[in-house]
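Mods, move this if it's the wrong board.
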Amino acid sequence: MLHSLLALLFVAQIYDTRPNPPVDTVPVTPAGPNPTPYRGPSDLAPGFVRAEPIPGQQGGASATSPPPGSAPTANGPGRLDPRAPHGPNPGPGGPGSAGAATGVFGSDADGSSWATWWALNQDEYLALRRHVDALASGTGTGDELGAHVDWERIDERIVDAALHFTRESTEDAVLRRAVLALGRACDGRSRASAAAAVEACFARVGSSSQPVAEAALVAVGVLGHEASAPELVLLLDDAETARTRLGGRAVPTRLRALAAYGLGLLAERTPNPDVRRYAAHHLEAALARVRAAEERELGSAVVLALGLCGPVSGVPYADRAPAPAPAGASGLEPLFAALADAALAPELRAHVPRSLARRATNPAERERVLQTLLARAADPNERNEVVQGALLALGDVAEPTDEPLDAAVRAALFHATNAGDVLAREFAVVTLARIGARDPDGEAAALARERFLQRLERGNQRERGFAALALGVLEHGRDPEDPPAKASAEALVRALATARSPEELGAAAIGAGLARVRGALPLLAKELAENADPSVLEHVASALGLLGAPEGRATLRARLAAADRRVHELPSVALGLALLEDEELVPALVELVVRERNAYALERTCAALALVGDDRAVEPLLALLRRPEHASSTRAAALTALGRIGDRAAVPWRSLYARTLDYRALTSTLSDGNRMGLLDLD
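Not the wrong board. C-alpha cells:
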C-alpha cells in the first residue's frame, strides 16, 4: 500500500448548504448519426449554460489568465520510493475488490511489487460484471440477463434508498457512500430521477465536510447526467457563481481537481459527442492556465480527465483556448505541449502519455504519439515519473507487428527492462506482456516470453513476481479454450511449487490463473486449504476463479463455510466463487446478512455482496439500512453494496482512472494517507 502522503494544506470553509437549482432544465444537443463538426461551446444547443466567463464578468476564470483569488494549491506530490514499503493495497480494498473498510491504498505493501500493478489493473482481467450477470440470470453463460431479473425496478429501489440518505443523513461515512451509491445506480442517461439525484449531490458539494463534498462531485460524474456538465465546469474554473454557492470564497484546489475528475467521468459515460467535446474544451482551457510546477494537483486531475473524453480524431474547432487553433490542428496539441513543458510538475507530465494514448485513434495520431513516447522513454535527462508514464502508455498504442515503429517500441522496452530505475524496468515488462497478448503465438510474444522466463528463473524476488504476472498477462490474450504455451505453463507451475515467500506465491498464483494453467489447480487448492496468509488467500482465490475450472468450487465453498470463524476472508473467497459463477454463493451471503448481528461480520459480508451481489441481495440490504441499531459503518457498507449491485457498467468507475495509472506520480487527490482520495472512494 502507499505511504501516508503529505497532510493536505486545506483550510476548512463553512459552506452555504442551500440546494442548487434543478439542472435538468439545461438541454443538451442530442447525439445523432452525423453530428455537426464541433467548433466550441457556442455550438451547443440554445439554453446550454455557457460555463466560460462573460467578457468583463468579475471573478470569472478567463482562458488566458489564472482566476482571481484562486485558492492556494494543495500539497505536494505523493512520491513513491520503490525501495520503501509503500504501494496500493493488493488486498480486498483494491479496484474490483470489496474495499468497504480498507480503501485502495494503505501502508503495508511494497509499491515496487507486482501486486501494486495488479490491484490497479485487475478489473480488466477479472471481467467480474459478466460473471455476476450470469449468476443473476441463472444462465451460467454471462451472455444476457434472464427475463426474470427486472433491473429497472431493482435499480429504482436502490436509487430511492441512496437518495434518502443523501438528503437526510448527518453522518459523513454514510453520506460519502450514499452519494456514490446514488451515482452508480442512477443512470443519468435514462432515469427519471436523474435530475433529483444530481441536485441532491450538488447540494452536498456545499457541505462543511471536505470528504463529503469531494465524494459528491465524483458521484455527479459517475451518474453521467449530461446537464450537470456546466456546473462541474463552473467549479473547475473557480467561477463567481461557484464561489457564491460555497459561501463567497474561492473554490478550494481539491474541489476543483475533483470537479475535473467528475467531468472526465461524465464525458466517458455519455454517448453524446457534443458533451464530450464540451468537457474536453474546458479541460484543455484549464490545462492552458496551469503555469507552475506547484499546480501539480489540479493539473494532474485535468490531464487524467482529458484521457476519458474520447478520441479526438484530429477534429479542429475555431475557438480553442487559449488561442484559435490552426486549421487541421489535432485536439492532442494541448497534451503534447504539456508533455514538452519541463516547467510543469513531473507528476502532471507523467500522466500525459496515458491520455495521449487513449485519445489518439487515426494512424497519423498514433504514429506521432508512439514517436513522442519513445523519445521520452529514451531521454536520459527525463524525470523517472515521466519515463515510467511513457513506458506504461506504450502498451495502449503499440502493436505486435513487423512495422518499423512497432519494432522500435519493442526494442526500447527490451532495453528498458535493464534500466536503472526499478519501476521503469518492471513497467517495461508488463507493457511487453500487454503488447504480446494481442498475438500470443507471434514472434513478438515469443521473444517477450523468453525474457520473462529468464527473469522468473534468475531474477530477484521483485523481478520474479513481475515475470510471473507478465507470463499470465501474455497468455491471457488467447482464446479461453486454447491452452497456454507449454513453456509458460511449466514455469508457472514450477514457480508455485518453489515459491519462497507470500509475494512470490501470490504472483505465481495470479500468473497461473490469468494463463489458465489447469495443471496449477492441485497446488492452488492446497494453498487455499492450508495457507493462512490473507494476501495469499486473496490471490489464490482469484486464481482459482480465473482458471474457470469447476473443480475449484469445492475448495472455495469449504473456505466459505468457515466464514463464522474467518469473516475477514469473505470478500476474497466470494470473488473466486463469483468468477466460477457458483449458484450457491449469493444465497449463502444473504443468509449471513439476515442472521448476523456482529458489526464487523456484517460489514465484511456487505463487502462480499458488493462484489458479487444481485437482485436477491437487494431487499436484505435495504432491510439492514432500516435497522436503527446498526452502526454508521454498517449502513455505509450496505450502501456501498447496493450501489455496486445497481451499477450496470462493465467495469467499476474507479478502474477508468486506475488502469495503467503511473502510480509513481500520485497526488493527494488521487490517494492520500487518510484514504480520502479519488482512488480510495468506493
